[in-house]
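User: Could you check the structure of this?
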Amino acid sequence: MNEAPAWTTFDRLPFALGGPPLQGLLRVEARDFQVDEILGFEAGGEGEHCMLQIRKTQLHTEDEARRIARYAGIKPRDLGYCGLKDRNAVTTQWVSVGLAGKPEPDWSALDDENLQVLSATRHRRKLKRGIAQGNRFRIRITGSSGDREQAEERLTRMSIQGVPNYFGDQRFGRNYGNLDGAERLFRGELKKLRPHIRGLYLSAARSQIFNEVLASRVSDGSWDQALVGDLMQLQGSRAWFAAEIGDDDIHRRIREMDIHPTGPLWGRGGLPSTGQAAKIEADVAGRFTEWCAGLEKFGLKQERRALRLPVAELEWSWEVDALVTSFQLPTGTFATSVLRELVAEARS
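Assistant: Sure, the predicted structure tokens are below.
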């Protein structure tokens, strides 16, 4: 049996901007971590789906979805949402409820201390994962200590330069159980898995390979630079193209956050990168051969993800012993990847 690869835990991934200048606690209370989903479009006002804007706290998205489906008298598969939201937080998100000829319920009857329906509007289509534009965060870091001047310099630099676009540790499950599950799946030890659980395991393995590639690029200082053979992703788009290293316009567009170098989301097919970039990616893949083979076996295809995460509309203020920050991130990215460059031990 092949020896399991050693992966780098989230807390040991290299920092791009230097060690965090602050120490503090995150999520002492749910209201310390607030997330508002930015849909990026408006409901059409008619159709067989009802789009609900929900505020929830101390409630998993799956539990919220089951509760709404049960109340509406529909199957959970007829309910759609753009992404999962943290339980230990105050979050707003959009949920679509497929009514298909059913009368619309009195949504106010759902309201309690954990869930409130803020608005309800008809729409023609079911919401799908990843369709939202992004999320707006407001995070209060309590008991913060350290050099405030250095912290403000770090915040300013993050707003200009962005941060490494690591997958956050929540992707990997408690005590990295999703990666352990992925290894068992790839070894053939898990024969019968619900599709949802299998998807979690596959996503975790794929995300960890990406994080390892990004860690290599952070360590050599190229995470926000173009290497020979790099593939660039347009900001706000999934489209990518090959970089011409001798093209001054490429370097300007990188500085202006218009394009970002990318790393692999592993799957079937050869690496589309070449040269120096492909060598880094292949070296990491060589440490995770069983994982790569498993991802290919289960039918995933080669995709790309930006190595850099822009931190938009970043603002902050100080309280007596707390730092309050707010910022906006694209969908599919993690606030913890922003916070780790700023605050050490930022979890209660």
